[in-house]
UniProtKB/TrEMBL annotation:
The organism's place on the tree of life at top rank: Bacteria
CDD domains in the cross-refs: GT1_Gtf-like
Pfam families reported for this sequence: EryCIII-like_C (PF06722)
Entry keyword set: Glycosyltransferase, Transferase
Domain Erythromycin biosynthesis protein CIII-like C-terminal intervals: 302-418
Record's protein name: Glycosyltransferase
GTP-binding listed as a keyword: no
């Protein structure tokens, strides 16, 4: 190869996947590859800010409305009440409508994605998503599946069902979940398979929206929280990563009037920030604690009129740099956030809204790396008590420090980049 290999990274329209891919792209670039990004509407400029070339998808306007950030904010706002439901109740209320919206996106960008891949001519494609875009398989290019959601996305008899929030040993719960999921998701799955057939691809088995790559699959599943599998994944195709934590600009904590106590960071992701009432309720509890709280409120700064002396709000934080200085990370259970907490040896208080947040909340609780609380069904005293317990647990902090040292000794971004370039070299 007389030119640097071109690697096209295609993350889903979420900041967790997007910034995970930024970490991998930086490492690829450091090893001499040209990393470029294919990005959805609403993410224009996100990757350019990190120095990468962007190729912008142009959805078919007649097929479906644009799937930019405003669309998904409205979608989440509509479903806020459903985030209080159990994972199984969310199947019908939230998960099925979300799959339908995701399928709409796949259909709407198919022609644009096919044209972009023909233009880029990548040597490999990294797909960080929960669904296959037929244009990727139709391109004939080597492709990599990146599992940046919970490890439960890859099924196994010893691994709880994806999105269920169940424990591995809950056999009865698994049976109920699988029966409900099969019935609820069948219409979306049938529609997606019909589109695959129309594009010349084989249909997928019931409940599956994305096949594993025959070349390479990367799973963000640190060994400290990884499940033992009945059917081990072949090591030549499946590479487990100790997180995929990127370096960010340094974070210098803004001084607060109450500038004492441990630093606690809270972020429910770009879309979780929509629930301003819930965040305000939590801030009232924060005001009673001897700690400094830095809270990501996304684009909703104007919703907060009075802020306690020990709380600082921001529309964006360089999250890895903040977490590295934190004594506690309160988050929604996104896999990127969970991995960052483990990477920096910080306990998690996981208050899941939906999707794999339920799986990661369960895993944090079961592995003793954090605590799981319902996102809204709590009293001020209960929330205060959990925060105080996590801040004061010295044994937990020591255990997490050992996990952090192991993860940092084998950075996920480096292992991912080497695996991708090995795939390219192998042709």
């Amino acid at each position: 190869m007389n030119r640097p290999p071109v690697i096209a990274l295609f993350p889903e329209a979420s900041f967790g996947a997007a910034l995970n891919c930024v970490g991998i792209a930086r490492e690829l670039a450091a090893r001499g590859a040209e990393a470029v990004f294919i990005c959805h509407p609403g993410f224009t400029g996100v990757f350019a800010e990190y120095g990468f070339r962007e190729y912008h998808l142009q959805p078919e306007p007649a097929a479906v409305p644009g799937r930019g950030e405003t669309y998904w904010q409205n979608f989440v706002t509509t479903h806020l009440a459903h985030f209080d439901l159990s994972p199984q109740a969310q199947l019908e209320a939230y998960v099925a409508p979300t799959w339908e919206a995701i399928i709409d996106t796949v259909i709407s960008v198919e022609d644009s994605l096919e044209a972009l891949l023909a233009q880029i001519q990548p040597d490999a494609i990294l797909l960080d998503n929960v669904i296959m875009f037929p244009a990727i398989l139709r391109s004939g290019r080597p492709w990599v599946r990146v599992v940046s959601c919970a490890e439960t996305e890859i099924p196994d008899p010893c691994v709880p069902p994806y999105l269920s929030g169940l424990a591995p040993e809950d056999v009865a719960g698994r049976a109920r979940w699988e029966k409900a999921a099969s019935a609820t998701l069948k219409p979306a799955h049938n529609r997606y398979n019909a589109f695959r057939r129309a594009r010349g691809l084989r249909p997928l088995p019931a409940g599956e929206f994305l096949e594993c790559s025959e070349g390479l699959n990367l799973l963000l599943a640190p060994s400290a929280v990884r499940y033992p599998r009945m059917q081990p994944l072949p090591a030549d195709r499946f590479v487990f990563l100790e997180g995929c934590v990127r370096e960010e600009v340094p974070f210098d904590p803004p001084p607060l009037p109450a500038n004492e106590g441990p630093l606690v960071y809270m972020s429910f992701g770009s879309l979780g920030a929509i629930d301003t009432d819930q965040i305000k309720r939590m801030i009232e509890v924060f005001a009673t604690l001897p700690a400094r709280f830095y809270v990501n409120v996304g684009g909703f700064m104007d919703e907060y009129r009075q802020v306690p002396d020990n709380v600082s709000l921001g529309s964006w934080f360089p999250q890895p740099s903040v977490v590295a200085q934190s004594a506690l990370f309160i988050h929604h259970g996104g896999n990127n956030s969970f991995c960052e907490a483990l990477f920096h040896g910080v306990p998690s208080l996981v208050m899941p809204y939906c999707w794999d947040g339920h799986d990661n909340a369960r895993r944090a609780q079961d592995t003793g790396t954090g605590r799981h609380m319902h996102r809204s069904d709590w009293s001020p005293d209960a929330l205060r008590g959990v925060i105080e317990t996590l801040l004061e647990d010295r044994a937990l902090r020591d255990r997490l420090a050992a996990i952090s040292a192991d993860m940092k000794a084998e950075p996920g971004v480096a292992r991912a980049a080497e695996a991708v370039l090995s795939l390219v070299r192998a042709g």
